[in-house]
Design goal:
heterodimer, A: about 110 residues, six-stranded mixed beta sheet, 11 strands, B: about 110 residues, mainly beta, seven-stranded mixed beta sheet, four-stranded antiparallel beta sheet
Chain lengths: ~110, ~110
């Protein structure tokens, strides 16, 4: 059974720092991995999608990498801003007939001004 | 930019009552989903829907739950007889052939 975990559970950094959020999954037979942002009491905003054949994806100050064989993904945020404060979730989708995303536990990020 | 919408944003109901949560997926999307998030817990998959039928459901999605796409735009989740443990945030999501899933803002369901 696929398990997705995220470390750290919470992170506080001063504005301007570069930071890395980690996601690990137990079954490497994934189809893709998606990173989301969730603001308190709000929905999920998709940030990046990485297909299993890809090593990384970039969007603005965000860069996500994927190492499928070791069951890891990282989300790199450059030059963090207070507006980046949110919970960051990773989710994996398996290949085959399944459609569902399996979510990680999330990392609560606070960027201090 | 097109987005998934959900109504209501907050629903309070008494135990044993039926509730219907509504979603309008992005118009050219083909796959539809419901997920839920109990406070402080992970987001969990409930059900996926494609071509007017359920394509996959989790063990959470028992006989108390049903989904429907009554017209070309709405996608609903019905809970027939709510329990206290059904209190959660319910998210609708959709995607087209490309694999990225887009989520709505959620409906907070409170069962008293």
């Amino acid at each position: 059974k696929q398990e997705v975990t995220q470390i750290p559970a919470a992170l506080s950094v001063p504005e301007g720092e570069n930071l890395v959020l980690n996601c690990s999954f137990t079954d490497s037979a994934i189809y893709n991995l998606q990173w989301f942002r969730q603001d308190p009491g709000k929905g999920l905003t998709s940030l990046l999608l990485i297909q299993s054949s890809q090593r990384e994806q970039t969007s603005g100050r965000l860069n996500a990498s994927l190492d499928k064989s070791s069951g890891r993904s990282t989300l790199y945020i450059a030059a963090s801003q207070p507006g980046d404060s949110a919970t960051y979730l990773c989710a994996v989708k398996h290949g085959g007939a399944t459609n569902k995303l399996i979510f990680g536990t999330g990392t609560l990020l606070a960027v201090q001004p | 930019e097109p987005e998934v919408t959900q109504t209501p944003s907050h629903q309070v109901t008494q135990m044993g009552q039926e509730v219907i949560l509504r979603c309008v997926p992005i118009s050219n999307h083909l796959y539809f989903y419901w997920y839920r998030q109990i406070l402080g817990q992970k987001v969990e998959f409930l059900v996926s829907f494609y071509n007017n039928e359920i394509s996959e459901k989790s063990e959470i999605f028992d006989d108390q739950f049903s989904v429907e796409r009554p017209d070309g735009s709405n996608f609903t989740l019905k809970i027939r007889s709510t329990k206290l443990e059904d209190s959660a945030m319910y998210f609708c999501a959709s995607r087209k052939m490309k694999d990225e899933q887009y989520f709505g803002p959620g409906t907070r369901l409170t069962v008293t």
